[in-house]
């Protein structure tokens, strides 16, 4: 055992206990990462599983229906209580109900219980009593359920048509009229009339619903998004419903104050922000590192600059946000509005937070990371590589571009990807320079110039922050917070893994520097 502890077994000779400590630290880090991903996956992805709905009968005769969420002990060793999500906010005024476990007489799972996801008032849990069409006979039982499913499929197609008409035709017309006040409004009125006609086609049919305790209400079908009978679904049906729920989360926009819906605008905004930031930070970071290591005289001033760059990497991100707000938004943005968008004042165009200023702010934030990583890669290149290129007749520029930079590409790529990973998770500076709580329209469309740098955008990190601390019902938003956090962690993890694989590929192509 002492041979292993002293590093004389399989571990490198002479390293003593430090090799064990390093291996243990790596194992602990991997374990913590797996636990974090497991927690986020269970809490986040489990939200989309159509869990069975309990019908609970209490000892006092009260009946409720809902999905059990968690249990907690009552004060003073008085037993335990269980939290049910009962929905039906329009009937009960709340989504949650704490029930003492000792007061529960019976729990069963009737197959006819339906869960309706609605635009307003959240979900409804209860029974579908009857289908009340605008024209025709009233339907009950399975006939009503079949009519509802068929009508919801048609409503989904109609909503998609309305969304396409609004995004591809109405919004470009409105923006065009904003810049050309003398333009004709006939086309705009025609589009609005078409939208009103489509909405009128959706209205009319109604549902007669009943809660498990006998209260009834009339529900317009047009306000129902989806309907399901979880208790009557098999495992296969639940897997399909779970996959559809995950896809809607990834492809739809948020609603109900970020407590429902998806995160597609936040995904798009995060990726677009990171791409723009990378395009801005990469050339400046690489050029600065090349100048400091290959061109500048290695004296006291250069050493002071290096110290300053490394210190900038430790500046809190909120400081960069304040700098971006003062210099980019109010300074440059205000100047651009005064020079090019005077007709739009006092409404700011570039003089307010937007995608461009957020990208520049994050580029400044991550610039030290790129400079330091690139300069370290340049410093590891042996001098004989440079001297050999110069001895063969290459100019200094050819030596830099054809010998030094290709060999330093893995280090440059590592710096850029680390910068991307950090920028993807930043929230504090974005709160000041352009991120929005709700921006369902992504800043890319078919209207010239196609990429609108002045618009606000959504971000995954800020979406998590807003839903967790500014939502009206944090308990309802918590599963979506876990799912969004899992998505953000996976994005950062993929970026880091990409850096490792690309670095390995480039090292194998240009030679391993450690061999020299």
UniProtKB/TrEMBL annotation:
This is Phosphate transport system permease protein PstA. It is a multi-pass membrane protein. InterPro entries: MetI-like, MetI-like_sf, Phosphate_PstA. Residues 267-499 form the ABC transmembrane type-1 domain. It is found in: Cell inner membrane; Cell membrane. The chain crosses the membrane at residues 20-42, 263-292, 312-333, 353-374, 403-424, 480-502. SUPFAM superfamilies: MetI-like. The keyword Calcium does not apply. Signal peptide: none annotated. Belongs to the binding-protein-dependent transport system permease family. CysTW subfamily. Its main location: membrane. Keywords: Cell membrane, Membrane, Transmembrane, Transmembrane helix, Transport.
